[in-house]
Design brief:
Helices cover about 40% and strands about 20% of the residues. By secondary structure, the chain is α+β, with helices and mostly antiparallel strands.
Length: about 550
Amino acid sequence: MDTETNGLPRDRCELTEVGTVLVGGGELHDRWSSLVGVVRPLSPGIQRFTGISQAMVSSAPAPEVVLPEIAAQLRGRVLVAHNARFDAGVLRQAFARAGLAWPDPPVLCTVALARRLAPLQERRGLATLAGALGADVGATHRALPDAELCAQILCALFKKLCAHALTVGEAVALTAPRRRPARRRASQVDAPRLARRAPERRPDLSGLTRGPGVYVFRDGEGKPLYVGKSVDVRTRARQHFTSGAGWTGRAEQVDCEATHSELGALLLEHRLIRALKPPANVRIARDPDGYVYIRCRLDIAFPILEVALEPAAGNAVCIGPVRGRVAAAELVEQLNSLFGLRHCGRALPRRPWPSAYGQMGRCLSPCLGDLDPNLYRERLEAALRLFVDARDGGHALLGHVDAQIRTASEAQQYERAAGLQRRRARLASLLGRLGGVLRAVHAGARLVVAPHPREAGRADAVWISGGRVMDWVKLPDGADEVLERSRDAVRLAGRSGIGGWLVPDELAEVRLVGAWLAGHDAHVLELGADPAPARVERFVAAALASPRAVAAG
């Protein structure tokens, strides 16, 4: 068997395709595959990687239709997969999400088989291993072709397997990972191990919503133990009691508040964790989602551009979030060279002569101690205004370089024009890798409509102004209320100018909302100084009518 997914981690991982091949007597027999419908839209990257488009899964049968067929195929048989731990985990989670019983078959992994039975084959990727064992390798990253390659690997290693194992149980034991016992910390030596709680002793979960929302587990005295969120609250809450988490043994009741979108659930979960401080919620210091910010703190002399995981508090310009630290760091170097900004860190070293960048004319060299601070600020503001005044800073940056190319050509400085042409090509490549829209988070005001993952006509409305979440409600029925809230958000946008002001306590929420918007096809309306009623009404109607992104001018 082989599975394809939407590429998202943990509870956001959804099955998109499954393929099976029945193997018996060393031969490949019945073949079967099916696409599977998903709740979350597929990212462009996973569509390119697997060849499974959004249109294909949109018309595919739901998991509740496909999974019973998979269960029927697994009964009384052995599940064999390449990296079987992943495939079995994806299937087990899909069964739990659909409320179906997992057949729990014996599982064999062809990677583990190759590690035990073909130790000289160091590269054990599916296509590489299959080719080394004499299989015909064709298309990959689709479920049925990959399942067929996995079946051919099994057939090639089956004789060796039979020589080492006489039963299925012995084969499973042979391929089980050999791990050293983990060293327990001193604080855990005397700690009792809590057994998984029996279903009849769990809190009543029947009243929880099957849609997006936030849930709070409490003990017998009503004290909060854990706050969580999900696009399917009831299924996610049930999964906690199979995880072995210690706090589940004390959970006696659970509260739930439904939202109309995943973004609403993220915001509510964050605010409840801050307010209730439940002991089981371990704060992750850095969210490993790959997003970073290009930021400039304006409270230091001769400010610099830097790349950081979080926006900066206080008076600063924070651009992003964008995906890719390396590409963001290179873009910072390009901006520094274009505008003559400092390439060194926050500390300003004093030099008797210019740095290498200063000697090449790519830095104003404030380290020499004789530079007018106003000149540096003018250059810095020229760079930052590309991302503050324009809705798409990347497009504005390319336009700035184009203007420099024209100026150099008109002055017959052809070598400089050619160098700028090469720089422009590199910048275009970098902007394509970063993805999204490069813009300062505090610039302007926006209305975001986040739709319900399953039900049409339901959505959360979030107003972002000055880089902060100014307002957030379930989308009102009346257009007048949406318009009034939009005008309030514009009035609360804060001061205008280069710098924005982010409160330290709100940085986590700024990052959370920014990362969600960067990773989803959200419906976003840019609000001007006085939002037009007809424009707001058309935007809301279009956002509710279409599951795809709405381009609002």
